[in-house]
Design brief:
With about 200 residues, the protein is of the alpha/beta class. The chain is about 30% helix and about 25% strand. It is globular, with a radius of gyration of 17 Å.
């Protein structure tokens, strides 16, 4: 099955391709002629994933999926959540985002947090959603040099290291995106057996 992944992020593409395997041909936005930024105007991760998937499907008519990910911190009422990428600035400034998060949590004992990825899949015009969640906590300072985003601050439950202190392989086996993609694969197999 040929399927469009609503991303131009090479790292994300490689990560998802490895999990999907050779029975699916992943196609990028660029390959189907979508070069503009897709609007992310939703108030939730679920809405943003859906908006992006519909944007691609309406323009190409091809089966596709899109994801949206956020870090939800309990003591901050679920923030940064849907605004995770632009928490401190308009751009994807990971260092500024991490500084702001640490500042917002100063003096707070509750550091519980979770990463959540929502994937919207559209096959033959029918939309389905899956999500992957990993529970954890926010460290008091950054540690590690792997990964990106909030990885130097996020310690998953049952671990004493941040995502940024893990290899990509180790992180992918327990990460929110890894869990969501595993559910996506299961969903694709269920859809295919109906045909």
């Amino acid at each position: 099955m040929k399927i469009v992944f609503a991303t131009n992020n090479a790292h994300k593409l490689a990560e998802v391709s490895a999990v999907l395997g050779s029975e699916y041909e992943l196609v990028t936005l660029r390959e189907v002629g979508i070069t503009e930024d897709i609007p992310e105007t939703g108030a939730t991760l679920d809405e943003n994933a859906s908006i992006k998937a519909h944007y691609v499907y309406e323009r190409t008519g091809l089966n596709c999926f899109a994801d949206d990910t956020g870090l939800e911190v309990e003591a901050l009422g679920g923030a940064p959540g849907v605004h995770s990428a632009r928490y401190a600035t308009d751009g994807h400034d990971f260092e500024a985002n991490n500084r702001k998060l640490l500042h917002e949590l100063e003096g707070k004992s509750n550091r519980k947090a979770r990463f959540r990825t929502v994937i919207s899949l559209i096959v033959d015009g029918v939309e389905r959603q899956v999500e992957g969640i990993v529970e954890g906590k926010i460290a008091t300072s950054e540690a590690g040099a792997e990964g990106f985003g909030y990885d130097p601050l996020f310690i998953p439950d049952d671990y004493d290291r941040t995502f940024a202190e893990m290899s990509a392989e180790e992180k992918n086996t327990i990460s929110h995106r890894g869990r969501a993609v595993a559910k996506l694969v299961k969903l694709l197999h269920e859809i295919e057996t109906k045909y």
